[in-house]
Amino acid sequence: MRRITIDPITRLEGHGKILIYLDEEGKLRDAILQVPELRGFEAFVRGRRAEEMPQITERICGVCPEAHHLASAKALDAAFGAEVPQPARLQRELFYNAYIFSDHLLHLVFLGGPDLLLPEDVGKAERNVLGVLQRFPELGRQVLEVRAQAQRILALIGGKAIHPVFALPGGVARPLPKEAQTEIAAIAARLVELGKTMIGVFHEEILPRPEYQSLLLAEEAWLPTHYMGLVDGSLAPNFYDGQVRVVSAQGEELFRLPGDQALGRIGEHWEPWTYVKFPYLRDFGWQGLRAGPDSGIYRVGPLARLNAAERMATPLAQEEYERFLDFFGEKPVHATFAYHWARLIEMVQAAETVALLAKDPALTGTEVRGKLGKPGEGVGVVEAARGTLFHHYVLSPEGLVERANLIVATTHNAPGIGLSVKEMARALVEKGKLDEALLNRVEMAFRAYDPCLACATHFLPGGVPVAVEVYDAHGNLLRRLEG
Amino acid sequence: MPMGTCSEGLRARAVVALGNPDRADDGVALRVLALLSQAQGVEFLPSLKTGMDLALSLLGYEKVLVVDADPALPPGEVRLAPLAAGTRRAFVHGLGLAESLELLRGAGFAVPEVWALAIGVPRVLPFGRGLSPEVEGALPKAKEVVEAWLRS
More exposed terminus of chain B, fewer Cβ within 10 Å: N or C? Predict the structure, then answer.
């Protein structure tokens, strides 16, 4: 009998690729991240009813539909000039923090886990999620159980965890029943407990490992860029709402603006060798694909959010954030492999926020839909697990989409990912390591960002693996690694 | 934490439809789902997600059929087979459904028996609604296969 494998890569015309080019002497000439894209999304949505957008956009990425669903709803709130009532806002924010917790947990333990939890001498055959589970069976089981419960929160609010449909322009579809609030509060306590467990695991099993410390402090993994993230009024990260704050490579605030104004400060640069756009800060202009205080390149995502903020919003996350800053002794933290640690801190904040919001009596209020005004233009911004996500719509007087533009996290990070990959490759090639270790390190630099090519390429479902290819000076393929 | 309902003494089955109706033939699984009549003990689940999220949502079912578009098959061809893990290891978000189920099984969870119904679609799927004639023509056969699977 023929067996069938569901393989998302077969749905894309080509792979995401990291291409490494060597010169005549075998040294690094260049390294680039090449991303395929099927175009046509903007044309497809033109003329469609605005209310369809939260459903259409959540279908473009099988990894984080929650982020697109709410960014879209927020863009429509703005486009219709709607005030979202407090109960609806609380439902959205609680749902969103449960998603962030859930997504970060999966990455930390199972996707980043093989890099973080397994010693470097573990062979390729075991360097995977099953290898993690074999070495940490109790932790693995606990993580899976709690993640299932976090999904239950998504289902209680969003309808179905695998297909959330609840946010509408101006609010949400229905009030939350009181029994659902009670159930969410009980689950939230387990989320916080697992957050504490994960902090313990990080300090006992991950941080003391010389391999991880060498990655955190490696010169080739130190990338001085600017940083972007949503912050609340006290300058703590907020995943669902707030102002877009950008700090420079030296840690100075460059701007703090509402999403629509922040969008105007971002330019987009095209290169002929990749479909992914390269965003940059207009204040600096496009200075080429290089980092530094005078470059326009910035990064988003967990590390960027911590760098763009001045504190965390919740107590346990704040404690861990202080340990994080003590370790590096400076801010911004430019170490790319600190993305993992930042992810842990954010996961804890998300768990604590879920617990806090679950106790709010206004959560079950019955006023869940604000009045809609005349259709116009709107920008919605949320912090997706991988970074800042902008949805920008222009609507016709009839409420149809005239124009839509999305800037997703992996697009913001594309220049940073490319640079990280290049620096990692350069360091290893110069050491003469054109072997599996090189390819694994390059892949690790890429993976630290938790990039989502499905999102960047508007493709469902799940994500797109990336191949690493090394070419000699004559264009001959020397090595290929495929995930 | 099963998503579906379960009659007393009858373990539920689920039919999951993966795909995006805004990507032309990629939405074929949802069209198949729409053709099926509701049956006792069977849950129909359209899903935007695969991987671990979908795997966790399937815990508690006895048997699951995942219907999906498959560009590796000739357009319009319909095939039913057990879901198998690929040779690809986890990479970024490449933790697929089969690998996630394997992970859950390894952690001691009772995972369902999962089958896949693959329907051949063109390799390139543009934005747009509606199926191509070849894929549209496969709907009766796909419906028949799902109904036979439900009776088995």
Answer: C
